[in-house]
Amino acid sequence: MKVTERWYSDRMGQELSLVRWGHYGAPVLLFPTAGGDAEEVERNHLVGHLAPLVDAGRLKVYSCDSAAGRVMARREGSTEYRTWLFNAYHQAVAEEVVPAIHADSAPVPVVTAGASIGAFNAVAMLCRYPHLFGAAVGMSGTYAIEQFIGGPFTDDLYYASPLHFLPGLDGPALDTLRQRYVILASGSGRWEDVGESWRLAGALGAKGVPNRVDDWGPRYDHDWPTWWEMLPLYLDDLVP
Questions:
Q1: Is the pTM of this model over 0.90?
Q2: How many domains does one find in the chain?
Q3: DSSP code at position 107
Q4: Which among 10, 56, 232, 240 is placed 20 to 30 Å from 150, CA to CA?
Q5: For residue 156, what is the domain's CATH number?
Q6: Where are the alpha helices (DSSP H) in 56-170?
Q7: C-alpha Rg value of the chain to the nearest Å
Q8: For residue 145, what are the domain limits?
Q9: Are strands 211-215 and 26-31 parallel, antiparallel or unpaired?
Q10: At what angle do helices 79-92 and 67-74 cross, to 10 degrees?
Q11: Is the dihedral of CA 171, 173, 175, 177 positive or negative?
């Protein structure tokens, strides 16, 4: 069963789509790659590879547009606008997308997942809002997004990027984050850089956040077939 919602987000100043596949189970929010829309994960057959878990009633799959990633990929507006939008996008996911998921499912922590820039968003959301999310699966992650945005460093980039805000994180949010779990999976084949995952793992580990890096080796490229194999395996372990 596929259901689509669309609304105007005042936080971002643009429309946002949320798509759901499945009837029952633990909520899993998939973030698209850089400029993907909410249906990208279906067109590229990632949802299809999760069908056994969906059909068994173990999970509901959700995906929302990669609004900030799209602007970054197209290099729209100023660099300040692009970093502002990443921060606003994360706020919209926390304040708009998650409540919509909770209205459709049980109000339990959501598992996040994504590949490439989607991995960045999946892990960033868990680190920023650990009270809303239970675990994150980052596949072939690109975590130093400033290299793609360019321009001066801004407060918006600081708050959007775990590599920057994690070292200063403290208090109740860190206490909650230490009860969560982050999987950082990557191949070492074409277009992959497992060093990105190790760098983020170091930042997480320094704050006592449980995580692990899985290097799948040189046969696995930065491409959808890699993620078809990875995600069902990890979600099978994470969801009841």
A1: yes
A2: 1
A3: S
A4: 10
A5: 3.40.50.1820
A6: 67-74, 79-92, 98-104, 117-128, 146-149, 155-160, 162-165
A7: 16
A8: 2-238
A9: unpaired
A10: 160
A11: negative
